[in-house]
Structures
1.
Amino acid sequence: MQEEIDAIEKNKTWQLVEKPNDKEAIGVKWVYKLKHNPDGSIQRAKARLVVKGYAQQPGIDYSETFAPVARLDTVRTIIALAAQKGWNLYQLDVKSAFLNGELKEEVYVQQPQGFVSKGQEEKVYRLKKALYGLKQAPRTWYSEIDSYFAQQGFQRSQSEPTLYVKHQGKDDILLVALYVDDLVYTGNNKKMVENFKIEMMKKYEMSDLGLLHHFLGIEVYQDEYGVFICQKRYAENILKKFGMYGCKPIEIPLVVNEKLKKEDGGRLIDGWKLVLSYSFKARFNVCC
């Protein structure tokens, strides 16, 4: 929790002010989560300060909210291309990504539980940048990272707004896919790839996750033989959720001892007559 508050204040996300009479302060709450490794082990404990966005009013606290994310097909295509070309795939995670988005609206939030300033309990925070939970937070972050990539010479794909391509010289290329605060990147020039990571870590608070291992529920394994993907942990979680983790595998999942009959006692229907009947009725209705 203290790390979250420190990140917010370091980023100059808010300012403690007197609450205007004509404005309402939105409540905030703490959300706790455990981040896991692909093998299920705990990576780290995480506390997030979240705004109660359901209290926001359209046209007053927010306007546009939509922000695109990378499609799964795009990520799979990048993985396939890297496997074909023999490139390495890397991953970066932006710490508190939404805190970087500049707010245009005038938004006030209450002081968080456990971190109320003594002697200033009646004051509220005016947000200069977005917090998690705000309806416009994803859009403000996307606008921020999109403008930064444009300044760095990246070209945004026309059909995939979260895919960015940067060319250097005739042959060198760098590909970056963005999914909220996760970046997957690859390219044929190691120096170009390394410089991208250095510049990103200078601009934003980043976690260098190294080679891509886990993304959107897909487990990725890279070695000299190629790139291999699977969803073992995802499948195990589904089985556990429905109480079938200890079930026996079977090639043809049919009901045990089910007896199939050629005639089950139902009335026989001529399929062609049924189709012609519906076709005639449709044309009759159109004509009439």
Note: Residues 281-288 have pLDDT under 50 and may be disordered.
2.
Amino acid sequence: MKRSLVVKVTAGLDAPERCSQAFTVAAVAVAGGVEVSLWLTGESAWFALPGRAAEFTLPEAAPLTDLLEAVLAGGRVTVCTQCAARREITGDDVIPGVRIAGAQVFVQEAMADDAQALVY
């Protein structure tokens, strides 16, 4: 049975190491053939906008743009509905392939029989 991984990242530029860890875990899982759903919540919601991931730097860490591209290529990226609304981010604003969805969808993904969920 193929397992899936749901990664919820709540940090952005305010906690760069935690943010980078979440993106790194998601990208490595995708590279390993795991079905991945990366949720951008709180300050990480900004990374759903074009060019924002390029503003992120952390010494000794992979570029966030590369990690995000890897997850988009082989997994799913979602911005929390409320987090997007608080930041006035709409579906027209986000990088192609990113969706906006709410807690009900997160719970469905996290509670799937084959799912493992991580929160950063």
Note: The chain has four helices and five strands.
3.
Amino acid sequence: MLTIRVVRESRAPSAGPGAPGERRVALDPTTAGKLARAVSADADQSIVMVDAGAGRFSHFADAAYDDVSGVQVLEAGQHAEDAGLVLCVRPPEPELIDSLAEGTVLVGLLSPFQSRELLERCKARRITALAMELVPRISRAQSMDALSSQAAAAGYHAALTAAHEASVFFPMLTTAAGTIRPARVIVVGAGVAGLQAIATARRLGAQVWAYDIRAAAREQVESLGARMIDTGVDASGEGGYARELTDDERAAQAEALAKHLSTAHAVITTAAIPGRPSPKIITEDMVERMQPGSVIVDLAAEGGGNCELTRPGETVEHNDVKIVGLLDIPSQLPVNTSEMYGKNLFNLLTPFIRDGELVLDFDDAVIGPMCVTRDGDIVHEGVRKALEDKA
């Protein structure tokens, strides 16, 4: 019978409220119970073993897990060494990998392009590692796509941050002192995060323009009540991501974007490419042409930022323009983001649970592309090549 372990995040906050660190947990109590029942209908069996305190910072107490049939909280310092499936949010410490039994399946946001030591340990222990970042963007996998679920939260939070940091009201206000016009907001990148930022900024009453080099994004942008900035450049690429621009295309889009940025009160940038540095879209010159008191909220800060002046994890000012380099935003909304991430895992794994065991099909259109290590080797060609190039 399959035993599932939910680990306490190694990068969880070390102090109290407000301390930096990972606040999410891989399974919330409700989803943990559903996954346990998918393995076995026997209510007396403990299927999902949760590390003590795993849900503390996402506001799921140990007692909430213990109250669920099929779920058990481990004692402090205790580990489920016989677990065949281990679930995490962020890449676990290498020491945790060393404690796993050979052949264990590890699933999480593993940052495979940056986690050489982790993958080497997985190879040595013959761990099968599935990276949630590598879930393919196909229709069948939409309910499993953790990048999209977490990006929706990031886009929502970015719009609220922009409204908080801006020096103007977002909505139009009619007051005894006169009418205040709504803020002008530009969202760079109309993927999941960008569309959620657009929708949230619109709900707050702002006038919103969107910039995206994929022509296909126009319909979605306009359906949310925003207007598309037309640059004359279409860089639609494979898998729903934008391709890299040529020098001439980059110059054309920069000129069109700079004109609009100069009138904006708030800018939200969301253009990120998994495993690669974030593209630099907003130059120092563009920032210097922006209005005094305007703000840039850079969601791509973890990859270095879409703005040349972004400092990851910091808020800086340049020429009276504030630049906010947000990091790990989904972790700031841990209740809902943990619930969404848990559902992603549930939807991914349950089709492969048969007669109480996990039977993965590596020829499957979802499992195959997201498998990074298996049988003592790095089997994902893109990850292997990227690590070799960095060696």
Note: The mean pLDDT is 92.
4.
Amino acid sequence: MWASDNDFTGQIPDYIGSWSLTELRFQGNSFEGPIPATLSNLAQLTSLRIGDILNGSSSSLAFVNNMTSLSTLVLRNCRISDKLSSIDFSKLTSLNLLDLSFNNITGQVPQTLLNLKLLNFLFLGNNSLSGNLPSSIGSSLKNLDFSYNQLSGTVPSWAKDSQLNLVTNNFVADSSSNSVLPTGWGCLQRNTPCFLGLPHSSSFAVDSGSRRPVSGSDNSFYESDDASLGPASFYITGAQTWGVSNVGRFMDAQNGSYIIYSSRQFLNTLDTELFRNARMSPSSLRYFGIGLENGNYTVTLQFAEFDFPDGQSWKSTGRRVFDIYVQGVRKEQNFDIRKTAGGKSYTAVRKQYIVPVTKNFLEIHLFWAGKGTCCIPTQGYYGPAISALSATPSTFLDLK
């Protein structure tokens, strides 16, 4: 059963637990919690995807224990307050993808979860997990997201053979950790930001997805950002002035691309080259300014939609909708690039915000909250996209 992208409201009905289903998908709606415990009766489910519960009481994970046939389990942003130990992962032997990100899950990561032989994708970011990571993982597990938790200790040796996102935790940067993670990874831990109190930069600008730097008409030098990011990865520049983190897998996509390109001419801009490429994410895309001088900054984000063509084609009905956070404050909810551009594709849109930098660190977060379309122009096509961004010190004239 597929009931996504309909903006249904209210609670998920209890009676669904009496149906005979092998697939249940409730994403892109506006449901309230909790997730009904009666779903535990759906023992034949192979795929369960529920996302973005807006409000209501929190849910438990216990109902999952009867679903021993699951291959895909997504309970993303569902207001779940529980521990992973509530699930007996030894029974979920068919599990290939698990996404419990953006909840309030506490406790430690169980070894039984990481030992699952068929598990390939694991997304547990933006929770309250603590303790050390298990010492071993299954042979198929290659994509792991633990970002934005309270995990600690040393980075396990298996990290060198996996795509692992550990941004914003409490790990120790020692010689063994530095040998298995990208250079500068310690700059993105909670209590060890680089250059704290010793800033080395007053601005930065990035041309997202580009292979070559670009000089903009605003006199900014936009550095290239062609890092090969996947479902659970991050990158920091050699000068450690900025970084980028991506989380998520394009579901049902044949060739889910995180960088998209267009050769078209773009309107409403003097800088068409900035918009040739864009970085896209199916869940969560973050950019970081590292070692900035403290003070107020003007953050400029530049967008252009170019995969939903204008006209009467069915492809023109696609909608890309996401939220924008800067320094943890939501600046835009249900932001739609094309709608903001007057319903036009290939048209530049610029959003500016004045924000404080107090610990020599800046965070820009583009977050897919389940809204928009999922499968236009191709199956599995959704999530935030950005063409370029910059942060410069604010002056009195910047204030609006």
Note: Helices lie at 111-114, 175-178, 337-340.
